Amino acid sequence: MEEAKQRQRGELFSWCLVANVVDEHEVGQDHHIEHGTRIFSPGTKVYVSSWWDNSAKDDGGVLWVIGKARKQWRLVAAYIARDKLTNFRVKKVFDPKALRRMAQDEHQNRPRPAQFVRWWGKDEESRRRVEEKAAYYNQDIYSVRQRERQPSARPV
What we know:
This protein is of the alpha+beta class and 156 residues long. It has one domain. The chain has 4 helices and 7 strands, in the order H-E-E-E-E-E-E-E-H-H-H. The protein has helices at residues 2-9, 96-105, 124-138, 141-149, and strands at residues 14-21, 24-27, 32-35, 45-52, 62-68, 75-81, 85-93. Strands 6-5-4-1-7 form a 5-stranded antiparallel sheet. It has a two-stranded antiparallel ribbon with strand order 2-3. A hairpin with a 4-residue loop joins strand 2 and strand 3 (32-35). The longest helix is centred in the C-terminal third of the chain and has 15 residues, at 124-138. It is globular, with a radius of gyration of 18 Å. The chain starts with a helix and ends in a 7-residue tail after the last helix.
C-alpha cells in the first residue's frame, strides 16, 4: 500500500545505468555472427548494476544486469560482457517490476532505493556516478584500452 502511494507521488524511483544488448557480434574461432546473447534478445533494455565482477582485468569488463530474458515474461539477472552492450544512458527507474528485482538483489522485502548498495540509489551523488559511468562506457572501448596502456610521461 505504501509502495503504491510513493509510486503515485513519484517518490519511488532509482537512478540507473541503462543499456541495450547489441544486435550482432562475432563468436567462436570461426567468427560467426550471433544476434543478441544466449539470455537476451537483440535490443533488449537492461538495467546495469553499480556492482560488477572485480575479477575482470579492466574496469567494467563484466557487468551485472537485469533484463527481460528471451522467451520469458520475468526479469532475470545475469553477468554479461561489457562489449555485448551498447547505448549506455542515465534513467530514472519507476518500473515496479525492475525496482522489486533490484530490491531482491539487495535482500530487501520491498524497494527502498535510498538504501541500495548494489544498485545506484536515488540521491544526486548516485545520479552523478551514473552519468560518469555512462560517459566512460560510451567511449570507444579500444581507444580507452590504448590510452591506459600508454606509458606516462617521465622526466629525463
